[in-house]
């Protein structure tokens, strides 16, 4: 055994070198090989596996029916046929490749409906709801009507409604809380008589929320809070279902405000509830139609930007109605902001840039719940993460999570990617852009596009090239280029999709907040901003536990008395930080 082992695993030093090295492959040698005779080629072709011979025999029996009733062909005939088949097959393949290569591009027909189609194609009907290239005329100029005769809407193409309905059906399967609300409260109609005007992202998930509100008795009119996040097919399905929707993907700024104005419809329809995401709808009504606040019972707001605006109005004594702060509810902060961003940041970046994250130096501006989710996802793929923060508590959390806390000015020169998650304005300025390396990717995961100073980039010296939908290359005079995604707007909903399940948590919280404001007795809520009751947060969370087959432990009377709480909750005081 030892001898055999030494013979096999001997050192390469002991091996004898050959006396003659192989001759070089020269042009003369190539010409000699090309002069091989046809007989030699036939001999090489014959040396094939028995499997190939059986395949040739089977093929021959199909190709030559006159042999079926006769004796099997001779071996010599088989050899000749085999060699000829090999040569013929090679020629056919080559000709097919040449023909395919030489084909001129023709006008593309409609592409199949598929989730795997690249988002970079403008005419795909993918789940991100990209703009269709079939009709580029402005939706305002196209008279459209649903199968039931509804004309009070403005979308891209009502014919996409069947596909949008499939998207909504899929989303419903991942949103158990809203389905339970429909089942439990559908008979009671707690929103009967409510007129809800909404301005949110119009996706399959928000469509489930809108249709849930309608099932609970509300009349709804809707506009989009983001010019890039609308899924056109979903908007069509909502319109076909009787919801007045005014939104399409790729709106201009003027289109955006036009849609909100049409959605409010102050001359013919007076809302009594507002569901807002970003505060644009509330701000528009406050400036253009202040008289509507006399009939409003309340506002439900779910974004940092919108809540900031509401607190400003409240502080100035200009908030005319009660408002529910959904953004700072536990179910929104700890689930939507954290887990939704954690799972969708990578999807948005991959779809738009095809970037590989391993080893990339990424600066994340802000380490709130959104920033935490983004950092966790990027770190898991091997990116080198730096964090910028103004809050020392959040900065310390980042340090304890193993991240380096720096200022943006310190890390901007070496950053491969900059992601804003602050909810603030002018976080990334022209000074930062000028110091970026070529190829740096810049995007925003906050609600508003104010975090990136785009105004300073729209100058004559800089050139903007749209290379993909929602992907712009900004080119400096020296050739440096920076990649800007979604024009600084919310990346995940503008360039990809988000998980239905985690949005189910936020949507259920919004629905319960609307029900609470609409049914609250007079005097319960003043003209101020309120957080949702803790009991409501716990109820929303409990609606989602069956999806995980989770079983919550029940307190005994003695344990509940010891803690000084009800055995049915709420289990934490309002000041508790989860």
Write the layout of secondary structure elements.
Elements: H1 2-8, H2 27-34, H3 38-46, H4 50-63, H5 75-102, H6 161-173, H7 176-185, E1 195-200, H8 204-215, E2 219-224, H9 232-240, E3 244-246, H10 253-264, E4 273-276, H11 280-288, E5 298-301, H12 304-315, E6 323-325, H13 330-353, E7 361-365, H14 369-380, E8 384-388, H15 392-400, E9 404-405, H16 408-411, E10 417-420, H17 430-435, E11 441-444, E12 463-468, E13 471-475, E14 481-485, H18 491-495, H19 500-519, E15 529-531, H20 534-544, H21 557-563
Parallel strand pairs: 1-2, 1-4, 2-3, 4-5, 5-6, 6-15, 7-8, 7-10, 8-9, 10-11, 11-14
Antiparallel strand pairs: 12-13, 13-14
Helix pairs in contact: 3-5, 6-8, 6-9, 7-8, 7-19, 8-19, 13-14, 13-19, 19-20
Low-confidence stretches: 1-22, 37-46, 62-72, 85-134
The CATH superfamily of one domain is known as Adenosylhomocysteinase-like
Distance N terminus to C terminus? 66 Å
| Major sheet size, sense and barrel closure | 8 strands, mixed
Average pLDDT over all residues = 82
Shape: globular
* Assigned CATH class of one domain: Alpha Beta
In what order do the strands lie side by side in the largest sheet? Answer: 9-8-7-10-11-14-13-12
What percent of the residues sit in helical stretches (DSSP H or I)?
Answer: 40-55%
| CATH topology-level fold name of one domain | Rossmann fold
What is the number of helical segments per DSSP (H or I, 4+ residues)?
21
Structural class: alpha/beta
Give me the Rg, rounded: 33 Å
Strand content: 5-15%
The CATH architecture term of one domain is: 3-Layer(aba) Sandwich
The number of E-state strands comes to 15
Keywords: NAD, One-carbon metabolism
GO biological process, one term: S-adenosylmethionine cycle
Family: Belongs to the adenosylhomocysteinase family.
Cofactor: NAD(+)
């Amino acid at each position: 055994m030892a001898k055999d082992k030494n013979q096999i695993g001997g050192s390469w030093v002991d091996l004898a070198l050959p006396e003659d090295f192989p001759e070089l492959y020269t042009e003369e040698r190539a010409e000699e090989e090309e002069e091989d005779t046809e007989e030699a080629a036939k001999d090489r072709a014959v040396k094939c596996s028995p499997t190939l011979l059986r395949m040739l025999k089977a093929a021959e029996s199909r190709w030559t029916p006159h042999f079926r009733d006769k004796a099997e062909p001779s071996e010599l005939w088989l050899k000749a046929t085999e060699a000829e088949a090999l040569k013929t097959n090679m020629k056919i393949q080559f000709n097919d490749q040449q023909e395919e290569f030489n084909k001129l591009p023709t006008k593309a027909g409609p592409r199949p409906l598929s989730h795997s189609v690249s988002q970079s194609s403008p005419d795909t009907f993918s789940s991100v709801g990209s703009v269709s290239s079939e009709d580029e005329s402005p939706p305002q100029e196209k008279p459209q009507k649903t199968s039931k005769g509804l004309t009070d809407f403005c979308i891209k193409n009502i014919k996409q409604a069947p596909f949008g309905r499939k998207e909504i059906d899929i989303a419903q399967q991942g949103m158990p809380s809203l389905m339970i609300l429909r089942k439990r409260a559908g008979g009671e109609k707690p929103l009967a008589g409510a007129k809800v005007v909404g301005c949110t992202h119009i996706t399959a998930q928000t469509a489930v929320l809108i249709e849930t509100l309608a099932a609970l008795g509300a009349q709804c009119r809707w506009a989009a809070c983001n010019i890039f996040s609308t899924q056109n097919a979903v908007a069509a399905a909502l319109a076909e279902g009787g919801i007045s929707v005014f939104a399409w993907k790729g709106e201009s700024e003027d289109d955006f405000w036009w849609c909100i104005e049409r959605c409010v419809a102050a001359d013919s329809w007076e809302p009594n509830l507002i569901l807002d995401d970003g505060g644009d709808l509330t701000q528009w009504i406050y400036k253009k139609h202040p008289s509507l606040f006399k009939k409003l019972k309340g506002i439900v707001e779910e974004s940092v930007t919108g809540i900031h605006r509401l607190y400003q109005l409240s502080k100035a004594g200009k908030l005319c109605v009660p408002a529910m702060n959904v953004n700072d509810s536990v179910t929104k902060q700890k689930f939507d902001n954290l887990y939704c961003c954690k799972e969708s940041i990578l999807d948005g970046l991959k779809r738009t840039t095809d970037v590989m994250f391993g080893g990339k130096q990424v600066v994340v501006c802000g380490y709130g719940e959104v920033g935490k989710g983004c950092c966790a996802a990027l770190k898991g793929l091997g990116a080198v993460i730096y964090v910028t923060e103004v809050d020392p508590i959040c900065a310390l959390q980042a340090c304890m999570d193993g991240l380096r806390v720096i200022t943006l000015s310190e890390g901007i020169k070496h950053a491969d990617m900059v992601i804003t998650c602050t909810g603030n304005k002018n976080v990334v300025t022209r000074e930062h852009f000028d110091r970026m390396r070529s190829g740096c990717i810049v995007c925003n995961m906050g609600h508003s596009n104010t975090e990136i100073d785009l105004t300073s980039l729209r100058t004559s010296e800089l050139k903007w090239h749209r290379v993909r939908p929602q992907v712009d290359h900004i080119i400096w005079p020296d050739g440096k280029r920076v990649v800007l995604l979604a024009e600084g707007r919310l990346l995940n909903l503008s360039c990809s999709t988000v998980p239905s399940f985690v949005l189910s948590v936020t949507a259920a919280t919004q629905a319960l907040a609307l029900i609470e404001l609409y049914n609250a007795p007079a005097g319960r809520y003043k003209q101020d901003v309120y957080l949702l009751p803790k009991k409501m947060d716990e109820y929303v969370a409990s609606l989602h536990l069956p999806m995980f087959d989770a079983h919550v432990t029940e307190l005994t009377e003695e344990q509940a008395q010891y803690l000084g709480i009800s055995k049915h909750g709420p289990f934490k005081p309002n000041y508790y930080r989860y």
